[in-house]
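So, could you explain the following?
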Amino acid sequence: MPTLRGWAALGAAFALGVLWIGFGERMLLAVGLFLLVSVVAGVVYVRSSAPRARLTRRISPVQVHDGDRAIVQLSLVSSRKLYAAIVEDVVHSLGTASFVAERVDEREPMTARYEVLCKPRGVYKVGPAVLRVRDVMALAESVSSGRRADRLVVYPQVETLTGLPVVRGQDPNVNSARANFSHSGGDDFFTLREYQRGDDLRRVHWPASAHRDELMIKQLEMPWQSRALVLLDVRADSYSTAEAFEHAVRGAASAMRHLYRQGFSPTLWAGQARGTTVATTQAYELAMEELATVQTDADLDFGTMMSRMRREGLAGGALVLVTGVLDAGGIAVFKTLSRDYYKTVVMTVSERENEALHQVQRAGAVAVTSGPASKWAPAWRESMEKSWSTASAG
């Protein structure tokens, strides 16, 4: 189709035609016909050129965190020469990158790169890329889109935490920096269950799957003390500002990564009907993607959800409750779930401790308090060291 310049040329050709009729000057007719033929020739050229070009995209790194930068590389290969080719790639909600190639040789790859500041967390659609091919005079262009759009997943920021809560079978004086637990891959067979997204396909029980005509997974019984639950409070009224909730999300993401790296098999609950248990790299990525998109919920029945989770039999060595200002609802959840875990860590987004936090501390919880503008890592380490001292003294 004609470009803006092409439409202007057509308008000028029409005007020149009117003037030729009025004045009878042949030069006016000649110029008008020239403009008309140029636009028509440009349209014919671009229509025959654009469909023979191919666009591909590669994003690196695949996993990024809030505030990181990703590099997107676009490659263009054409089966014939192109002139004035424009490639546009959109990272929806973040921006658009445009590149212009005055000439693209036949079967010679053209490569372009651009950098994306990945902020804030979320899942972003990249592309499809758009190729605009113009004639030499830029009077007409043909627009074609790439076949594929990619996803750019921006995880929350994470901090490197040090130290673990003392759980049964762990000596705080010897194993204060790392747990000696193993992931569930080498544990004993427990039962069969239906396949869920993120499960390791190597655990498919093929005879049972063939019998039931659906994938069945061998559920392995992991050691009790290596289980953990990271619970993110998504109630809107628990947070005074959006920044406070974002800080809580960062705390939950940091705790998930820390526990998983230290040998636990943590389960993440962030407002969904069921938690996501992390025992494989793929499951870890799913949990982090869940944190990338989590939002507050103004209508969540926190107590009912926690009672349902307890009925599902979740229990283990460590419970990490991440919330804003600890209130009566948070205390009720602590009382409901902490009885099934050997140690509970309560992470609150607050500048100072309140009476509710002192109450759960007296009940045996480890309190980690960090303001929205602060870091979790120093507060986490300080609280862990205090808990080790208390455990050793006892």
Remarks:
- The longest strand covers residues 69-78.
- The chain has four domains: 4-49, 50-155, 188-221, 222-393.
- The mean pLDDT is 84.
